[in-house]
Amino acid sequence: MTTRTMRSRHRRTTGIRRARIATGLLTASALALALGACSTPAAEEDTDPNAISGDLTMLTPIFEGTAGQKLLEEELLPQFTEMYPDVTVSVDYTNYARLNEKLTTGVVSGLVPDVMMMGVGWIEAFADRGVLANLTDGGLTAESLEQTMTPQIVEAGLWNGDVYGVPIMLDARFGVARMDLLREAGYDHTPRTWDELVEMADALTERDASGKLTRTGFDMLTIEPRQMFETALFSNGGSLFSDDNSSPAFDSEQGVEALQRIVDLFHEEKVEDTGFSAPNATVNPLINGRAAMAIAHNNVWTQAEAADPEVLDDLEPFLIPGDSPSMFVGGTMAAVSATSAHERAAQKLVEFLASPGPALAANQQRGNVPALTELLESEYVQDDRLVQFAMENLSVAKREGGPPKWLGLRGDVAPAIENAILRKKTAKAALTDLAATFQKKLDR
Amino acid sequence: MTATRTPDVPRTLDPRQPPPIPRRAASKRAARKSGLFGWLMVAPAVFHIGLWTAIPVLATIALSFTDYDIFDAPAWIGLDNYVEIFQDPVFGQATWNTIVYTFWTVPASMAIAMVIAVALNQNLRLRTWFRTAFFLPQVTATVAIAMVWLWIFNPQQGLLNGILSVVGIPGQAWLADPEWALPSVILVGAWQGIGIKMLIYIAALQNVDPSLYEAAAVDGAGPIRKFFAITVPMLKPATFFVLIISIIGAFQVFDQIYVLTDGGPANSTTMMTYEVYRSAFQNFEMGMASAQSVLLFLMLLVMTVIGRRATKGDEG
User: Fold this and answer.
1) Contact at 8 Å (CB) between A371 and A359?
2) Could you tell me which residues of chain A have a Cβ less than 8 Å from any Cβ in chain B?
C-alpha cells in the first residue's frame, strides 16, 4: 500500500495538462449537470474552484497495482487537483479483502479517510452508524442520480432514501458460454431454460479414461460460492432478505431449489468436481477450454484479451435461466466521511471520480461495467461484449446486501453453500441453519 | 592495627556539625537509594510492558464482557460472549482444528528439526549452505510460500498430483476437499516451522560437552545410542523452549490459512485466530473477538503448563 501526496505533481502544469483540465472540467461539469447535483446554496461556491480547498485522504480498493496507481496518480488526480488547485489528495491503496480492516481501524482510531471507495452492500452498514456523510445534503439526490444510472444501481448507494455512495463501477456475474465448444456439441445457442442448461452441461462435460474431469460443462467454482449461489438464487426468483430487510428470505422454496440444482449439477449430473477450479483461478477455465459454460464475472473478457484473444469471438453471455432470469451485480461506490473536515472538497472528488471520463478510465483499467448509462455508447463498452451485455441487462440486475448488518452476515454464506455442495448437509438444512444464524445476528 | 572508635558526639555539643547518622539508618538510606536506582533502571521496561502489553491485555479482558461493534460505545453484557462462543459450532470446530493442527505440526516438526540439527552439527561439506536452506522458509514471507504451496496442491496442474500420477496414485483436490484440506495445511505448517527449531537445536548442541560422546564411544555406544542417551537428554532445556514457542506459534497460525484456504472448505480449516479475525474485521464484533482471544490465551496458558510438566521445565 502506498501513500503519496499529489501536491508536487499538480504544480508541473504543461500544455497537455491544461487540455486535460479542460476535459476534466467538462466531464465533471457534465456529471454535475446530469446529476442535477448543484442546485443547493453550495452551488455558488462550486462555480469558484478556488473556494474549494483541503488536504484530502482517500482509501481505495480499486486502482490497485502499478497500472491502477499510474492511472489514478498520473492521469486522473492531476486533472482534479488542477481543477481545484487548493485541494491535495493522499491515496491509501488496499484491496477488497483488506478494506474492512482499513475501515475498522480508521473508525476506531478516528482517522476515517475523507473519501472512501466501498462495495455494494457496505453503504448501509457505514451510513447507518453515521460514518458516512449524507451526500443529499450536498446536493446529490436519488432522482438526480437516476437521470444517469438505473434505479437498481442508484439504490445500492442509498440509505433511508438519501445518497451516501455514488456508484463508479459494477461487477456483474452471469452465464458465459464458449460457443465454439457448444457448436461442436451441436448447440447453436446458449441455454434458455434450466433443463436445457443441465442437458447441455451434461453433454459438454468430458472426462478421460480414468474418469478424471478434463472439461466441465458448467463451471460454478471459479467465482466465490456466495456470489455463485446468489446468482442462482436471483435467477430462480428468490431474494436474500424480506422486503423490510428484517429477516432472511433465501431459505424460501426458490432458494432451496436453486441450491439443490447446484448440488445436483455436482453430484447427479457430475458436470464438475470440487477442486476442479477455485475462485480467482489464475486462468479462467472458460479461456483455456476447460469449461464450456460458467457462471462468470464480466472481466473474463479482459482476461481473455490478455491471455488468448482468439477466444473472444466465442464468448457468449447469457442470463442464468430460471423463474426470473437475472444478473448479480456488485460494484464500487465512492463515499465521503461524516467527519471530514473538507466535506465539500471530498464531495467534489467523489463527483469527479464518478463523472464519465474518470469512471470510464477506471472501468477500462479493471475491465468492469460503468455505472453511468451514457457510457454504453463508449468505444470501450462497445468493444467488450460482456460489459455491453451487463449494461444492457441492468434492469434485471440484483444486488446483495440490504440490512446494515450485512457485512457481519455475508461471511457465513460461503461455508453454508460449501456444506451443501460437499453434501455435509442437505440444501434445505444448509439454508435453514444459515437463516437461523442470520436471524440471530439480525435480532441482536 | 587497632581500630579506633570515634565516640558518639551528642548533637547538642557542636551545632555546626551535621548530626551523625546512625549506621542502621545509613544502611537503610543506601538501600532505599539503591532500590530507587533499580526502579529507575527498569522503569523504561516497566513502562513499555505496561503500555504495550498490560494495558492491551487488560483492555481485551474488559472488552470481552461487552458488546462492542466499533461504531458505538462498548455495552456491558457480562458473560454473554462466552456463552455464545460455547454454543457456536464454528468456533468449536475452529478450536478442534487448532488442536489437531498443533498436535501434528509441533511434534512432527520438532522431531524432524532435531534430526536435521544433529546432522548439520557434524562436519559436513556445504553445512552452512544446508543450514541456510532449511532456515529459509522461516524468513520467507508466508504469503509467498503459500503461493508456491497453492501451486503444489493444485488438483489439475499441481506438483503433488503430478508426482502421484507418475506412480499411479489418483490425485486429490487437496485444498478443496474437507478430508484433505486440514492435513494439507498441517503439512505446510510443519515444513515451515522446521527452520527456527533446527536453529535453536543447533545452538543447544554447541553446548553439549564432546567428552560425553567420547566417553560413550569408549563404552562402545553407537550413533543411535549416543543420540538417545546423550543428545536427547542434553537438549531437554532447548526442547522445552522449542515446545513452548511451537505450541504458541501453532495456536497463532493465521496467515497460511488466510492465503491457502480462507478457512474453508466448509470451515474445515478455520482456526481460533482466524475466527478472532473474522469476528473483529468481518463481523465488527470486537467484544466477541476479545472473548475469543481470552479463551485462546487461556488455552495457551494451559498448554504451556502441560508442556512444562511434561518436559519438567527447563531443568537440565
Assistant:
1) yes
2) 100-101, 104, 107-108, 125, 129-131, 210, 212, 221, 273-276, 278, 290, 407-408, 411, 414-415, 418-419, 422, 424, 441, 444
Point out the residue among A129, A276, A419 whose CB comes nearest to the CB of B266: A419
- Answer whether B116's CB lies under 8 Å from B173's CB: no
Contact A302, A381 (CB under 8 A): no
Q: Which residues in chain B have Cβ-Cβ distances shorter than 8 Å to A103? A: none
Q: How far apart are the C-alpha atoms of A139 and A43, rounded to whole Å?
A: 9
ipTM of the complex as predicted: 0.77
Range from A50-54, A202-206, A340-344, B182-186 carrying the lowest mean pLDDT:
A50-54
pTM above 0.95, yes or no: no
Q: Can you tell me which residue has the cell 474488559?
A: B62
**pLDDT of A111 over the 50 cut:** yes
Residue B282 has its nearest CB partner, among A210, A411, A444, at A411
d(CA A116, CA A58): 6
Residue of chain A minimizing CA distance to B156: A276
Contact B300, B247 (CB under 8 A): yes
Q: How far is B301 from chain A (nearest CA, A)?
A: 28
Residue A334, SS3 per DSSP: strand
Distance CA A251, CA A435 (A): 6
C-alpha A82/C-alpha A91 separation (Å) is 17
Which chain A residues are closer than 8 Å to B70 by Cβ?
A: 104, 107-108
Answer with the residue of higher pLDDT: A268 or A41: A268
pLDDT tens digits along A218-240: 999 999 999 999 999 999 999 99
Closest CB from B172, B266, B283 relative to A408: B283
**Distance in Å, alpha carbon of B68 to nearest chain A alpha carbon:** 11
From the list A104, A210, A274, which residue is nearest B177 (CB)? Answer: A274
Q: Are A399 and A329 in contact (CB under 8 A)?
A: yes
Given an 8 Å threshold on Cβ–Cβ distance, is B285 in contact with A275? no
Give per-residue pLDDT as tens, A36-49.
Answer: 433 444 444 555 76
Strand partners, A27: none
Q: Enter the C-alpha cell of residue A358.
A: 474518470
Kindly report, residue by residue over B8-34, the tens digit of the pLDDT.
Answer: 544 555 656 666 666 777 788 888 888
**What is the least distance, in Å, from the CA of B101 to any CA of chain A?**
20
Which residue type occupies A372?
Answer: L
A-chain residue closest to B286, CA distance: A104
